[in-house]
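Entry:
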Amino acid sequence: MFLDMLTSPFPAKRMRRVVALAASALAAVTFGVAAPASADTPTLPSKAATSEFRGVNWADPRDNYASDAVVPSGLSTSDSYQQVYAFTTNLMNGFAHNLGANTVRLPINPASVGTAWWTSYRGAIDAATASGFKVILSYWESNTSKDGRIDSVPAWNAMWNTVVDDYARNQNVYFEPMNEPHGYTLDQWVGVVSSWIQDHPSVPRDRIVVSGTGYNDDVTGVGAAPQLRGTLLSLHFYGFWGSSTQKDEWTANLAPRVGSYADRTIIDEAGAPMTIGLNYGAHNGNVYTAYFAAVTEFARQHRMGLVYWPGLRFGDSYSMESLLPDGTLVDNSASGAAQLRWGYGFGTTEPTNDLPAAPPGQQIVGAASGRCVDVPGFSTTPGTTLDLWDCNGGGNQSWNLTSSNELTVYTNRCMQAGTDGSTVAAGQSVQIAECTGASVQQWDVNANGTITSRADPALCLDAAGAGTGNGTPLDVWYCNGQSNQAWSLS
């Protein structure tokens, strides 16, 4: 998920700031299921392209960018191989049971391979493949540069030599040399992958997944490269890349990124907010519901593999699943899970309904900026500071003024002045918090356009520093009649 913003590939990834929740060290847990709940099989035509990849990403809370070991959510570097294996077995059963998934994409980096953690982390790969899952291993660069280039070629080569030695003979393991190589030109990237192929002749080409150029956002260049003939291709596609609320417009956005290479392409990152109450059965009317309808339908129609971002990642509102304390995986959005299953090829009738796409509520629009009061990155985490962002109709911009003068978002988060939940002073940030009924969570929406705190009516909701741009944080400040303190509800 990030303030590479609209050029960033990530969801929480449109995130200006990433909310990373610490992953608990969970050992053996049970999901209460031992196998998929039904014998459902996709109803696609018998001729398949890459549609056998029905998957999810299992990600580190830090979004897989790390200079130290990458550790998928729910694992800990203190876990033994046996603990990782048991946890992964249950997790794969949960993904299969809830979604019909049979593929998991896992991150690797040099700090994770050939190390003490690698000894344990291999339990995730081994358990997933033993559960019948395909595993896509993808290299992620460090968080120190994020320039879209390999951080250290010697370390990268050593990492891949170890991984290939360990898993070239496992037919369920696939190798993606790099995630989002946006720092390379097409010719440079083709050269990098060509060298990788030459260095690892034991890996069949149909188990090599070549990222598209840029942020994996176009596969036509690598698809046409004769040096890469016979490899699979990977594409990333996200709703925050555009503003259309119509499915057909998103389809038109996606199609040229794939070109004539659908039969080789896996969409191994695509995702949308699943924790903010959007109705994915509505399709049109909201950026994210229209986008998700388009990408799932396109994957289904073209028999393309689809690996959702993410199946599980702590602190990410795009996460399709949540892990409960008892170890159970639950869908964060029933309509989102149903639409994903449609993209995988399950069912004969696309899930739709006539309910509104976005949750009820009003946008709070700044008079000076024309931008909306926004919860960054669709975070639901208490303490997240609000900011200004382009109005997009998302659930993170849908506010309800309650009878007790609270401004709520997501139905269970309140706009709060200050940080301690009981007092407020000029210059303190405005955040979301668990609703408590405290005066710092009560507001008056006034006829003159101001929104004042009931904890101190002399303080107004304020765009800090009279800022108007995307990402401008919100605070409370002495009411002064300036346009950065004027708001309208629409």
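Residues 422 and 438 are 7 Å apart (CA to CA).
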